[in-house]
Design brief:
Elements: E1 4-7, E2 10-13, E3 19-25, H1 40-52, E4 57-61, H2 74-88, E5 96-99, H3 103-111, E6 116-119, H4 129-136, E7 140-143, H5 161-179, E8 186-189, H6 198-207, E9 219-220, H7 226-232, H8 241-253, E10 258-261, H9 264-278
Parallel strand pairs: 3-4, 3-10, 4-5, 5-6, 6-7, 7-8, 9-10
Antiparallel strand pairs: 1-2
This protein binds [7,8-dihydro-pterin-6-yl methanyl]-phosphonophosphate and 4-aminobenzoic acid (PAB).
[7,8-dihydro-pterin-6-yl methanyl]-phosphonophosphate binds next to strand 3 and strand 7.
Enzyme class: transferase
Organism: Nostoc punctiforme (strain ATCC 29133 / PCC 73102)
Keywords: Folate biosynthesis, Magnesium, Metal-binding, Transferase
Amino acid sequence: MPSNLIIRGRCFDWGQRTYLMGILNVTPDSFSDGGEFNTTSAALVQAQALVAAGADIIDVGGQSTRPGAKQITLAEELDRVLSVLQVLRPEISVPISVDTTRAAVAKASVEAGADIINDISGGTFDSEMLPTVAELSVPIILMHIRGTPQTMQQQTDYQDLLGEISSFLARQVQAATTAGIDLDKIIIDPGIGFAKNYEQNLEIFRGLRSLTTLNCPILVGASRKSFIGRILNQPDPKARVWGTAAACCTAIFNGADILRVHDVQEMHDVSLVADALLRQPIQHDC
Ligand SMILES: Nc1nc2c(c(=O)[nH]1)N=C(COP(=O)(O)OP(=O)(O)O)CN2
Ligand SMILES: Nc1ccc(C(=O)O)cc1
């Protein structure tokens, strides 16, 4: 796998430590924090708090992708994301990713200062996404999903879950490089909770290491998700922090490079200790 990636002057030195992506949902309806950060002033305060807590990347999302979430218009998504980027970019020095499946949002976001595109469809929802990202020359996160957030939970029949996730991601990595995206700018993600049932989410954690054969950094987004709620019998997503910690630790143990989380302060402690126990850092120039 590529040894490192420089984004906005910051070095992501893969394997050396776990990197944290702090979630900033500027939506009214996200499953755990909808409506909390969807004004520009609240978004800025939260972004600064995430950075102070140890976030390496801030992930801005204008569209909830929870099961059954309503699809907003392009104009609405552009308005939500761009108004926040305008306020964030001058104040935040860490890389900013934008969680979108639309090429037009990706392009306008990078023009407004975003550094990474996070596409939960792995470049499959919008045929212009991969060529657009290639043209913009920014890194992309390719996530596995089946169907759309509206239909995905009816598409959970797999013969070989990890094998199918792996071949989807391999195909999309190939499509991305064919479109002109550098291989070292591609991050893969198995898509916890996207077209997966409870048992399948657990199976992904156990088999995560099999995805390392794709030779790309791996991102895992388990934060506060419903499989944790089911294990804990905890309906309140905000009360799933310890459960998230266990999932993050397991992901690190099984090869994750980036964790996408809401509770950055807590997961920073988790990743510092897990990294000290599990990784053998070597000195690099990067
Ligand atoms: N790459 C990647 N992106 C994601 C992932 C994920 O696992 N991987 N999970 C999400 C769901 O979490 P969020 O808190 O943003 O909820 P919402 O979809 O309701 O906004 C949204 N975006
Ligand atoms: N976008 C998503 C939000 C939440 C979940 C989940 O709780 O499993 C899955 C996807």
